[in-house]
Amino acid sequence: MGAFRNARLHSDNVYLIENNVFGTTCARVGCMPSKLLIAAAEARHHALHTDPFGVHLDKDSIVVNGEEVMRRVKSERDRFVGFVVTDVEEWPADKRIMGSAKFIDEHTVQIDDHIQIAAKSFVIATGSRPVILPQWQSLGDRLIINDDVFSWDTLPKRVAVFGPGVIGLELGQALHRLGVKVEIFGLGGIIGGISDPVVSDEAKAVFGEELKLHLDAKPRSNSTQTAM
């Protein structure tokens, strides 16, 4: 959408092609709903750590209602998405094309089986999705990607996070602070994509105080009976 807006400053001959829904990854399944989940997590986390300020709460009375947490996350997320969709709908309808595009030559894309567009320049902004390894398919609907978190109707009791990158860490920490039992698994001892060894060691120490980290896991098999 940003590329489309900027391109239109220089030419009216610009098209926006989308093969799913308008609304941006950020608003639908990215930074906006994740920050709403984190806000709920921070509320509980702060409530559990008020003693140093001289504010003493009955910690046993702090209850997380998973359905209410996710209802607010989705409601606010949908409101944000609505703003984005409203903006998109104000753009010329003939410049917004729904369909899946593929290149048929250097300067031409085919959209589904009904439209061809020739252009001098193309901006590819498709985002990405994780690859689900074949040996994990047996986990069925227990295996989700981070986008799916924001379709939950309530919070789970336990979650195993595969991939201690930025998204895995922020969602894992948020779920942990909401009372979900979380364990995070990675390979090669890497955390958060950090390459500096001093910073990496500090990150491991900080996150390790709160989360169960297995940063050099050696997965061998899986089972729906033992999956977290």
From TrEMBL:
<protein>
    <submittedName>
        <fullName>Dihydrolipoamide dehydrogenase</fullName>
        <ecNumber>1.8.1.4</ecNumber>
    </submittedName>
</protein>
<feature type="domain" description="FAD/NAD(P)-binding">
    <location>
        <begin position="3"/>
        <end position="214"/>
    </location>
</feature>
<dbReference type="InterPro" id="IPR036188">
    <property type="entry name" value="FAD/NAD-bd_sf"/>
</dbReference>
<dbReference type="GO" id="GO:0050660">
    <property type="term" value="F:flavin adenine dinucleotide binding"/>
</dbReference>
<dbReference type="GO" id="GO:0003955">
    <property type="term" value="F:NAD(P)H dehydrogenase (quinone) activity"/>
</dbReference>
<dbReference type="InterPro" id="IPR023753">
    <property type="entry name" value="FAD/NAD-binding_dom"/>
</dbReference>
<dbReference type="InterPro" id="IPR036324">
    <property type="entry name" value="Mn/Fe_SOD_N_sf"/>
</dbReference>
<keyword id="KW-0560">Oxidoreductase</keyword>
<dbReference type="GO" id="GO:0004148">
    <property type="term" value="F:dihydrolipoyl dehydrogenase (NADH) activity"/>
</dbReference>
<dbReference type="Pfam" id="PF07992">
    <property type="entry name" value="Pyr_redox_2"/>
</dbReference>
